[in-house]
Specification:
This is Lipid-binding putative hydrolase. Pfam families: Lipid_bd. Keywords: Hydrolase, Signal. InterPro entries: Lipid-bd_put (IPR024404), Lipid-bd_sf (IPR038668). Residues 1-21 form the signal peptide. This protein is mainly β. The chain has one domain: Lipocalin. Helices cover 11% and strands 44% of the residues. The chain is built from one helix and nine strands. The protein has an eight-stranded antiparallel beta barrel. It starts with a helix and ends in a 6-residue tail after the last strand. The relative contact order is 0.17.
Length: 169
Amino acid sequence: MKKYISLAFMTIAFSFGFVSCDVETNEEPGGTNVEKMAGRWDVVVNAVDENGNVLYEDPYHMGTITIMTYNTSDNDGDKMWLDDRGEFWSFKMKVDVNYLARTFSADERNYNAKGSGTAIVTDGKVLEGAAKNLHGMPNDSIVFDIVFNDDDNGLKYRISGQRYTGFYE
């Protein structure tokens, strides 16, 4: 009897090996709807005039800062988050996206959840392969202008830089 129970148990265990996992799958993990525009960016902030001419390079002496762009929870292809992680003006706001053109902008809207003020984002672009890192390899770049209604200096800022590579630059 022990022999039959062992044989039945082995048969069941052996059959689970065939049905428990399917190594082959046709599912692709996919990505987000703004994946080529999303990322971590090393950028600099300059003050510019209405024509885009630089008035002040790095007016607050911050050097290179990091900003993030990422998809919304709805994974909309026409919106993404623009977030300076508290390194410049503490903005974290949704911007409108034209994914095919790799452009973004935002009409006047709150730039953080506290309602500290509003900001306008214009001329936002992600340019694939347009930058070169210190090693000479092509890298994506980002550029946009932003104006804050609570800026006592009334400046327009151009934020520009390239995608974070993970290598020491």
